[in-house]
Amino acid sequence: MANKIEIGHGSGGLMTQELIQELFMKYFDNQWLKAEGDSAIVDSTHQKIAFTTDSYVINPLFFPGGDLGKLAVCGTVNDLAVTGARPSYLTAGFIIEEGLSLETLENIVKSMKAEADKAGVHIVAGDTKVVEKGQADRLFINTSGMGFVDELHKNLANGKLITEGDRVWVNGTLGDHEAAIMNAREAYFENSRLESDCASLNGLIRELLDRCNTIRFIRDITRGGLAGILHEVAGMSSLGFEINEDKIPISEGVQAFCESLGYEPLHMACEGKCIVIADESEAERVASIMKNHEFGKNAAQIGQITKEHPGDVVLDTMIGGRRLLEPPRAAKVPRIC
Amino acid sequence: MANKIEIGHGSGGLMTQELIQELFMKYFDNQWLKAEGDSAIVDSTHQKIAFTTDSYVINPLFFPGGDLGKLAVCGTVNDLAVTGARPSYLTAGFIIEEGLSLETLENIVKSMKAEADKAGVHIVAGDTKVVEKGQADRLFINTSGMGFVDELHKNLANGKLITEGDRVWVNGTLGDHEAAIMNAREAYFENSRLESDCASLNGLIRELLDRCNTIRFIRDITRGGLAGILHEVAGMSSLGFEINEDKIPISEGVQAFCESLGYEPLHMACEGKCIVIADESEAERVASIMKNHEFGKNAAQIGQITKEHPGDVVLDTMIGGRRLLEPPRAAKVPRIC
Fold it and tell me: What are the pLDDT digits (tens) for A53-98?
């Protein structure tokens, strides 16, 4: 096989077969892909199925803390997990620019496989397209995902369970992903330790759902940052948020990055963080589950739900004031995921 | 809302919300998208679920017989239907080049919705990414699909049911899609009637499965053309094909196109054609179901399954000779789907 992707690799002919057999099957090999049907036939044992999709166009392809392949798995796994599903099956669609090195593609495929194994999901169907040089930027990946939802958690995703007085947590520091990507792209700080938090949160979320009785809502904090997510949830639930600015965990590196470049960390995307909303009565349990988990060491309770100002997010600032936290209008930089 | 796609439309902030509400929801509006969860929760009533993905990068975006949006629905619906599934739910992931006109996007979204309605499927989750001008060619769409498979048809997709003596049909003329795309792109023939056959075949396939007892295999004929598909199936089943060249339906337009430009119509992609393999005893029934269907008027029995030369496809030519039909190695042109 050639060492660069050529137009023929996306043709559906022998070269495509070679690519599938020699690269994708090398890592993804399983009974579903082996069946080589146009669709993967998967078993269902539950009535509710979660089904989601996300395309990943991040630039650069490799960054501190992850790469396009890892992100494409984590992102979709998280989208399933936050709806109360047990993420089970993924599909992967590759749009590849002619001329991409096979080594790059292989490294990304390998990384997808490693993360899929870690998250316990199977990649059960795939697709490869190649476009002419200059018609796409190296590689875009779509992953769609399917997972099964217990009857108990079928209303987790719609926000209707959220109640006045509920507490709000995040599982760690905010803004790490976007700051790391911007820094990787522009090299603002040469020796920074900025690193993406890119991670599959289904394990942590499963523990919360299994061990707590009052989890009302979970949502991963991605594009739009904490501010974007809180506004979305405030809108869905017709309730408001009271957030304590000094409780929000932000790493020193991200703080310094944002201060020197004028970014708002609460508008910045994470890829391994979620908000969790639960009844006050379970506050200790929620905090303890998070803090004992690999991806929740810096978890913090950051505020609560209020009826006072429905639809709004009020920030109690560190200097003792109160201000409305505005939602982001548009990200400053494209292609952070 | 602006009349061109800007970077902010992919940001996850308010501009993305506007785009979703004012464009996508205008057409796709349904209970699942309205729930605005990260995953769509869909009901399952069957044990086997088909789950597939395909990215569509066709150029041009609009062509005689269809457009990117219609194709993105048909293609994935067909991938589900040929595995014996009842296509039920689709996801749609959009990768959009900054600067694409909203009108173009709207026309494509509209077309997706129309085709989804025609095929009886729901688009239950979506994703939008925008990349910088020059980093993608206008618009790429990924559709992933899910469908439920009756116990009876769970082995349709794996090729293991195919038996010596089975008959092979196609539901109409071959090569229409690829010839139409090439002609639309290069304008080889100004007043040609070349038109893509782009269509959702789930209705026709459902009739065949419901009314026949011996359907052994179905596969849509896409990239790689009839030759590619037959070789793939010959490989899967360890049986051979005997194909009568003079039985293969090819339109006069495609014939003329291929002769003057030196293309092999049996290597050319369709988007509304499939091969059907069934027992000889049901030959009349299969033919009659096809010919009475909107998408099977030019259906033809083109050959049969043999043990004589496993893995090979032998063509009985019009001039009385026999030759091996070679699989395509690579398509001549990229981005036909």
Answer: 999 999 999 999 999 999 999 999 999 999 999 998 999 898 989 8
Task: Tell me if the domain spanning A35-153 has CATH number 3.40.50.300.
Answer: no
A142 phi and psi angles, rounded to 5 deg: -105, 130
Interface test with A, best of B4, B6, B7, B11 (most A CBs within 10 A): B11
For residue range B292-308, list pLDDT tens digits in order.
999 999 999 999 999 99
Write the CA distances from A308 to A124, A234, A271, A276, A322, integer angstroms.
47, 12, 31, 20, 14
Q: Give the distance from residue B213's alpha carbon to the nearest chain A alpha carbon, in angstroms.
A: 21
Closest CA to A90 of A14, A129, A141, A16: A141
Put simply, the answer to whether A328 touches B51 (Cβ < 8 Å) is no
**Does domain A167-324 bear CATH number 3.90.650.10?**
yes
Closest chain A C-alpha to B122 CA, distance in angstroms: 12
**Smallest CA–CA distance from A80 into chain B, residue:** B39
CA distance B77 to B90: 8
Give the separation between CA A305 and CA B201, rounded to whole angstroms: 50
Which ipTM value was assigned to this complex?
0.89
Residue appearing with tokens 């194709």: B71
> What values do phi and psi take at A120, rounded to 5?
75, 30
Q: What is the pTM of this model?
A: 0.90
Min Cα distance B218 → chain A (Å) is 10
β-sheet bridge partners, residue B300: B170
Where do the domains of chain A lie?
35-153, 167-324
Q: Quick one: closest CA in A to B328, which residue?
A: A13
